[in-house]
Amino acid sequence: MLFSEILAILNPSGNPVVLTGHLHPDYDSAAACLLMQHFLRKCGVDAQICLYGEMDAHSASVLQKHGYDPSALFAPVPEKALLILCDCHTTTQPGKVIACADHHPVIDAPDIPVYLNRSASSAGRIVYQEAVAFGLKTDREADFLALASVYMDTRACGSTKFQATDKPWIAETAARWGFDLSSLARDGLCLTDMTLPGELLAQNDFRAYTFGKYRVASSSVQAETEEETPVQDILDCCRTACISGTYDFWLFLCYFPLEKITDVYLFEKETDAWNHTRHAEILSRGNNIIPALQRMLQAR
Ligand SMILES: [Mn+2]
To answer: How far is the CA of 269 from the centre of ligand 1 (A)?
Structure first.
């Protein structure tokens, strides 16, 4: 039991208790820390959240929309801190790690006194379940954070990480408080704000790769509908960036997660031409598209 074990290990000497997530925390890291802070407070423990790195803009904007100030969650760790890791099991933060609540698969469990790692839709969901199992009362805020962490960490319950056993809890919790699941689903899909200028959209989710003598730039957007997506404008901006930069190719991916479509656009500087293919599934850039491109370029 996570909470009884944490409470047993916390010495009364007054070392500061610090909650932290992984480097460059996402929504779930923040939510898991907020939930841990919320429930520890109910046990009489004041814990400070000290995230580190940089939060992605989407997670930050959704947290803000939910009434939290993401920047307030970032702070240097005070001296002699006892650390509780949320949504990770290793850290470069200073202090003594006493506990961890994580859902990332590990091969060798780290040596942490209170170590909890299991498959879960989100780390926030683990903290929430452990608090409920320990007999702590939840409230609207805790229910919302846990629910939102699930939607944000599982592409709105669509990824393989999602635990189907969470479904009844989601339905009950949303009904109890009147939470807007369709709004959470839109946030969880990480849709790109298509009102941004084309130059920014062309740089969205930017990565660069080098394959032999070829340099490849890549960007992507997640779109709700084709009508609202200024594809031609974005492609023009990608082309301009490719021609004026040091890249030989620009790979632009346009995802339509609701329709499960991936549009793959590949621009080649030498021929000044785009190649477009449409796929009736959500392809992974890292696992599918980039390896295929790498093979194609190496065969040249
Ligand atoms: Mn997570």
So the answer is: 38
